[in-house]
Specification:
11 helices, mainly alpha, about 280 residues
């Protein structure tokens, strides 16, 4: 939501300044310029993007407009579900987790925490890694390497959509110039016409340059930066999960694991120590 508000502020500031300077809004309305710039930018983006990157880009943009899901509530529910899983394993052994990990959507632990249970990637990350411990498929000292490998892959996949969005933002001023040159070509074809008509066509050509620069620096580039922060927030969330599983593999007490993980959470979404004590006491 905050991203949409920011876009509205950008647009309102530009149009408001134009109106205050005595400009008329209809002078900026030239659909042909928008079609030229938007179509060229979209085509270039499709050409440079593998299918997966294109899909990830669409998902990333939609998620950015909705806002980051890795808020304080998400971390609180993550700590709750991990604490319950760790406590269950400590009381009854790792094999006691098998039913929860094999059918997480039917688990009486996961089902209590919707921000975790409804996130397919989170469920897959937790269950996939813990299953290796339950099955005894890997030694505890191998868990950090497996987790780091997955996080590196996740980080690399984040860069794909950011790269193509950044390249598109860089190209928009150029496409604006293309639209402007086309407008000048059209103007030259009507050079012997009325002065008003020539002025209108020159204005339309300049709008092409204006739109290319505005879309680049006012919309696409800021959107790319926001997507980058969203990616960093996602990585921080999964690093928190990974750190708890690593400590769990080494038989560290659940309360110590949760407290250590809590201290590594970004300050804006980190539960306080008092809140965490209250949460764990509530779980029992």
């Amino acid at each position: 939501m905050i991203v949409i508000v920011g876009f509205i502020v950008v647009l309102a500031s530009v149009l408001g300044g134009f109106a205050m300077a005595g400009g008329h809004m209809h002078a900026l309305v030239h659909p042909s310029e928008l079609v030229t710039i938007g179509g060229a930018a979209l085509g270039a983006l499709i050409v440079m993007s593998p299918k997966k990157v294109l899909i990830d880009l669409v998902k990333g943009v939609l998620q950015t407009l909705k806002g980051a899901p890795f808020n304080k509530k998400a971390y609180v529910e993550l700590f709750k579900v991990m604490y319950e899983l760790m406590s269950e394993a400590r009381r009854n052994g790792m094999l006691a987790l098998e039913s929860h990990l094999s059918n997480p959507h039917e688990s009486n632990i996961f089902s209590k925490y919707p921000t975790v249970e409804k996130n397919h990637h989170t469920i897959k990350f937790i269950c996939g890694t813990l299953t290796l411990l339950v099955d005894g498929a890997v030694a505890p000292d191998q868990i950090p390497k497996l987790i780091n490998a997955e996080l590196r892959t996740m980080e690399a996949e984040h860069h794909g959509p950011l790269t193509v969005l950044g390249k598109t933002a860089d190209g928009l001023p150029g496409f604006g110039i293309v639209a402007a040159v086309m407008g000048i070509v059209i103007t030259m074809g009507a050079i012997d016409g009325p002065v008003e008509e020539i002025g209108h066509k020159v204005g339309a050509a300049l709008v092409g340059t204006f739109l290319g620069i505005l879309l680049s620096y006012g919309f696409f580039a800021p959107l790319g930066v926001q997507m980058e922060f969203l990616g960093l927030a996602e990585l921080a969330y999964y690093r928190t999960i990974g750190s708890m599983i690593e400590e769990m593999a080494n038989s560290v007490p659940p309360k110590v694991i949760v407290e250590k993980a809590r201290r590594g959470v970004p300050s804006d979404v980190r539960p306080s120590q008092e809140e965490m004590e209250s949460i764990l006491k509530e779980i029992g």
